[in-house]
């Protein structure tokens, strides 16, 4: 029904921030792949109330999202049908309502949302079905018939197999393989934590361990509200769920840590006011809280607070990295007290490039914050090493990896050698780890592709296991699965053990990993297909390196 590459349905590419209407009912121009011709025909009759579509985003020039809405929709959409990074080819099945009256009757609306104002992309839309007031009509057989008009009939039956050939001679014996390693994982529990509505919203879960030694998770629900799940046992099979901020469409880009007062504190973006906020919990399970606006662009109309990441600094106060989305800059808010009712705001990277997406912050061996982030203009992974605990002095900016289009979905921690380690989407979308060779990451890092099976990853999260080696949870976008990579040394230069943790449906988006009180990894993630928040608890057989159960 639509292919912008051939000007079918609409003319030209989809341009960032510019809604484009597309007629889906009545007589429209369609493309028939079988004979490569365009034809005017009725596929969906006038009066249809919704269409079932397969939508493919093709080679966007900037990271963002595509929203497919009813034709009478206006403004900036609150939800996305597809999310992508530059150069992606990604598809999703989408059902969208169709207006039946008014100027936009029979139309749907396409909106490309991205900070890059001149970005563009191609879109391909296939029709799968539609609904009317009388119910759902499946178009598969009808579309097949339309596409086969004037095309040769099906192939005849297969002939009988010929006689088997003679056996070949045996080849020479191969060399002995290397001794196998016994460090797989067993999943002790997969728990669906919150099933109320479409929780998690696909991007923004964050997990840590609370003062009671049980996991606590921040996330966003389908109403745009900030929620917290406080687990009541180490595997999170029971929990207390609390809505923290339901005033606005807040709760985006959440990040959680435990403050010096032993209570959780959460940084997040309020999508209604376009501000950076914190929810300072007043007890260890976060059933009560105080909310503060940390950065409101000095009372301006800018958009600040995308991609937040929070930790506790050397002064025992929270410190937050985030993106000024209006300017395309990386910023830091250094809180001046434990609940972050006041903060010092510093622009860390204000280069002419579009920077600051996918930021992640930790405190380095020098007691100063260090931040990994994405340079979207150049497609590079960068690190900003602060030179004081509040990051108010000019930071040292280093390009860590510029091989191809790299650096999205970064996550940073400090390794067993006291140097930072960073997981991210590397060249061709492979899971990659950068092991810095000094505390500020200014010397050339050791770059290692960790999962090179041809998949595209997103949503990486890194921590250090009980054996001192990195453990990375990530979303395999190709196979729609949650995976874990266990490194066998501090720099992850050896062959890591890759484990598929959950692959039922479409699971694993926006994963977050930490080490539980028992020394085993625990992971929060989003079940895209079911719209649920889930937790996976892993266990190992002993604390001897490389002895994970398989």
Name the features.
550 residues; 4-stranded antiparallel beta sheet; 1% helix; 6-stranded antiparallel beta sheet; disordered C terminus; Neuraminidase; mainly beta; globular; 48% strand
Structure description:
The structure is a single chain. With 550 residues, this protein is an all-beta fold. It folds into two domains: 2-147; 186-539, Neuraminidase, CATH 2.120.10. The protein has one helix and 40 strands. Strands 1, 2, 6, 9, 11 and 12 form a six-stranded antiparallel sheet that branches. It has a four-stranded antiparallel sheet with strand order 3-10-7-8, with no helix packed on it. The chain has a four-stranded antiparallel sheet with strand order 13-40-39-38, with no helix packed on it. A hairpin with a 5-residue loop joins strand 22 (304-312) and strand 23. It is globular and about 70 Å long. The relative contact order is 0.10. Residues 178-185 and 541-550 have low confidence and may be disordered.
Helix and strand topology:
Blueprint: E1 2-3, E2 14-15, E3 20-23, E4 27-32, E5 37-42, E6 50-58, E7 64-70, E8 82-84, E9 89-97, E10 107-113, E11 120-132, E12 135-138, H1 140-147, E13 186-194, E14 206-209, E15 215-220, E16 226-231, E17 239-245, E18 252-258, E19 264-270, E20 275-281, E21 289-295, E22 304-312, E23 318-324, E24 329-335, E25 343-349, E26 355-363, E27 369-375, E28 380-385, E29 396-401, E30 408-414, E31 420-425, E32 431-435, E33 446-451, E34 457-464, E35 470-476, E36 481-486, E37 497-502, E38 507-515, E39 521-527, E40 532-539
